[in-house]
Amino acid sequence: MSQPQALRVLLTGANGQLGWELQRSRASHIELHAHDADTLDITDAQAVLDAVQALKPDWIINAAAYTAVDKAESETTLAYAVNRDGARHLADAARAVNARMVQVSTDFIFDGEQGHPYRPDDTPSPLSVYGASKLAGEIAVQETLGEHALILRTAWVYSSHGHNFVKTMLRLMGEREQLGIVADQIGSPTWASSLAQAIWHATTINLHGTHHWTDAGVASWYDFAQAIHDEARNLGMLTRDCTLRPIATTDYPTPARRPGFSLLDKTSAWQALGTTNPVHWRAQLRAMLNELKQTS
Fold first, then answer.
1. pTM
2. Cα 36–chain centre separation
3. Which of 130, 158, 222, 252 is catalytic?
4. CA dist 107 to 44, 53, 188, 202, 235, Å?
5. Which end of the chain has the lower number of beta carbons within 10 A, N or C?
6. pLDDT tens-digit map of 138-175
7. Annotated catalytic, 130?
8. At what angle do helices 165-175 and 221-234 cross, to 10 degrees?
9. Three-state DSSP class for 186?
């Protein structure tokens, strides 16, 4: 079997969940140059152009993002500077050296009103500044790079690295006897490891266009939290039970509005990547918790 062609890749967002997973899952044929905000400020167009022209990568993977969904409502300028302008700067630099680009995006570009899984070509209608700024980034990259761009939308990402819902739940379940968890927002949890592997596969086959990737299955935040509790108890990561109570979104008001149903249709990505047996989110959660237990 022939070896994959060598690829030189520039990665942004190296310290985030996805960036961390991309670094540790890199195959031997990939020459990876990983940057965080301290080594490459993507809001600085000249700095981005200089870095890309110096490296001349085959691919740029933009895993950098402003992801503080509620803070974005009051930090609109910063959210757009990173999520729209930063993406555009990377796309402009990619075009200058004839590189391809992966722009990681989000289910929050949809309003959650249609009641069945969103296809990549469904019309976006973001409810929040975060969602709108990520959509603006998608548009900037697609307009700049055309078929040299891969827009990959995902949802509910977690990892053993960094801050996320799973680790927050584990902490709160260890501290409290009861928690109220939103039960009327529906989506698919996604282990960042799964997403990273999908991205690496996509770069190998030069996938382009707009696609969706999450782990298989459906959950509410309440379902997700209950699974976290039960799996963690089975692993001995929680020493006692915590009672979880389903609540409505209206019972837990936040500055940013969130889609009630943001399930993504992954058919096009699964077909393109040859994913014939996608892994259910609960199996992925179990694997991540096993990893977290071993490293903590």
1. 0.95
2. 16
3. 130
4. 27, 32, 10, 19, 31
5. N
6. 999 999 999 999 999 999 999 999 999 999 999 999 99
7. yes
8. 60
9. strand
